[in-house]
User: Fold this.
Amino acid sequence: MQKQVTPTGAEGATGRTRQRYTILLPGIPVSSNRGALGWSTVALIETGGLRILFDTGSYGDRSLLMARLQALSLDPQALDAVFISHLHYDHCQNIDLFADIPLLVSERELRYVLDGEYRQRRDPYVPATTILSLKDRFQTVLDGSAPFPDVRVVALPGHTPGQAGLFLSREKILMAGDGVKNAWDFANRMSPPAFFSQDAALGNYEWVTANASEIVPGHDRPFRLRADGTPAYLTAAAEVTLTYFPDPGLEPKEVHLS
Ligand SMILES: [Zn+2]
Assistant:
């Protein structure tokens, strides 16, 4: 029997309890000519005594994600909910690891997949088989709803039609998903790849600038906005090392990204 998340109905309804997030897997702002790497941000939100996973990463993230949860003594089944920013493989491919836990996604995003709209929009990143096999487990949320204490759903459409973030309203922290993919995009007013609307994607940046004091991007480390609106990172860059094996007769080559 799947747990149900009881909506608070109004922000702040449960009083002033602890509200914070922990990055479990850092988003890495990198692309390649060998396809998408998909190293997205996976974070744990704690609010009002609830623990919510924000996005799950993709298959390549699985063992590291499980290790990170274990290091925090967190049983995946003890989480209160998993919120998916949008239904691209690099954000939702590990949902099957979290059995019996509410999977929250925006109503618009689930329709995008179930109605086949993603095919019409030539979006190649939807893992439809996984989503269809688990479709009965999703609980859908609407823009502006408050599924958790002091946490509001913010529609950030453009990259996909139903891409949504979570706004930790007490601390004004936006878990943006790919509404803000990375700080470079944000600073240069570049939209993420827009399978729905580039204009909408760029319009989201105005909402972010006006409302958020801290932004957790879908593929980058957290930043705040300076008075002039430019991003200032809040943490050091994650250390990422690629190991390349160029030839059996040569030493492996290590490439450090940061
Ligand atoms: Zn995406």
